[in-house]
Amino acid sequence: MKLPFKLIAILVFFSLLGTFVYQAYWLTGLYSTMKHDLEQNIMEAMRTSDYNEMMLRVEGLQKDNENHGEVKVSAGYDSDTGKSFVNSTTTIDRKDTIGKASKEEFFSEEEPRAALHTDGGLDLILRNKSTMLELATYFQQGLHSGLDIISDPDVAVYDSLLSHQLLDKGIDLPYHLEYLYSGFKPDSSHVFTDTIASICTPGYEPSPKAAQYNYAFDIHSNKVYRLTMEPINKLVLRQMSGILATSFVILIILSFSFWFLIRTILRQKTLEEMKSDFTNNITHELKTPIAVAYAANDALLNFNLAEDKKQREKYLCICQEQLQRLSGLVEQILSMSMERRKTFRLHPENFHLHDLFPTLIEQHKLKADKPVEIILDIEPEDLTITADRTHFSNILSNLIDNAIKYSPEKAEIVIRCRKTETGQVEISVSDHGTGIPADKQPLVFDKFYRVPTGNVHNTKGYGLGLFYVKTMVEKHNGNVTVKSEPGKGSTFTIRV
């Protein structure tokens, strides 16, 4: 079952469109996922940096403990009272002028967050990664509340740690870091926010589109690290550059493949039409000489014309001409089929061009149905060529035959033979015929192709002659070109 070309084109178009849409949907989903992961990485970098900064402070306090006494910080949940607590104990060296030890203990009436959602017990918490992270964050905030009483957060250290954490996660954007404290006025009428510290990448000024990431590191979310940086869209696209490039190449290959498929189908369709035209044309051309020869032979046999010598010779000449025409037609068709065979071989020999042209010119003058004038210009006169004599003769014969057929009332043809600087032999056949439009010139060497002439069919042809010329010239390791202008004629040039 043959599908109409329009249906095939529509199916190909929608297949390609579906591929593009699916690829765009997949890339959009991937972009959203990578952007979300990158934002999570930023928050995780802030949390990890805060933990590391806190541990560095603890190490510093431990060193002070060795020199001056004892420092303890603890946070947790009192099962007896049902309250969460943060306490700290500081023992100062006896040499200290104040010489006092202090102990502070803070209790919260709030039920501890770590125990709020534990219907399934501790085992459920440990199996839930998000709950585990929440629990770890809560413990970290609890330790902060106790540690910050003794030692304030070091924003410079936190900035250094955060910079390394971001770089480790592939985030190399400039940023602005702030340490903020939020609280209420004594009468609880207004919320205020103080900027305790601010650090910025040198030369960076946040734009109006800059994104902010807030990390609250105390239990009541009063103390916040605020990170301001430009939108991470470009960074996500940069990380996706390999995938985007691969997808683009795949889409280009698919587009080219579909284009090539459509082009091949169109060429096959055109070829089918040309073959159909060739079959119709060649059938008519084969029938004509057969019918004429049959009529002449019938006249000789059935009308006693064989007894009249003059009439007999006339009808025998008609038969001979038609049989020659038929033979030439069959020979041309056979040549087209033979040149494709693997067993096809040329038999090159060296011969003078001056010995080849006179016979060809005379033959074409005799069989032409119009006046023919052919000018032959060979320089030097003893110019030789190495080629298969039979096929090369057919090449030149086809070019001369075309020049005569497509010339008006009188055919004026110029044949020039020269030797180029590269050592090749150049042969050009020029006429003053109808010419070939510029857009049709690249197609004249295609098999079965004939230049469209509308409804005018004065010139007989099969679309094989120039295809044969091009094929045989290429088998001689040469090339053939055409220069033409409608109404002024054409020039075919062979270089071998």
From TrEMBL:
The keyword Kinase applies. SUPFAM superfamilies: ATPase domain of HSP90 chaperone/DNA topoisomerase II/histidine kinase, Homodimeric domain of signal transducing histidine kinase. The keyword Phosphoprotein applies. Keywords: Kinase, Membrane, Phosphoprotein, Transferase, Transmembrane, Transmembrane helix, Two-component regulatory system. GO terms for cellular component: plasma membrane. GO terms for biological process: cellular response to phosphate starvation. Residues 281-496 form the Histidine kinase domain. GO terms for molecular function: phosphoprotein phosphatase activity; phosphorelay sensor kinase activity. It catalyses: ATP + protein L-histidine = ADP + protein N-phospho-L-histidine. It comes from the Bacteria. Pfam families: HATPase_c (PF02518), HisKA (PF00512). The chain crosses the membrane at residues 243-266. SMART domains: HATPase_c, HisKA. Its EC number is 2.7.13.3. CDD domains: HATPase, HisKA. This is histidine kinase. It comes from Bacteroides stercorirosoris.
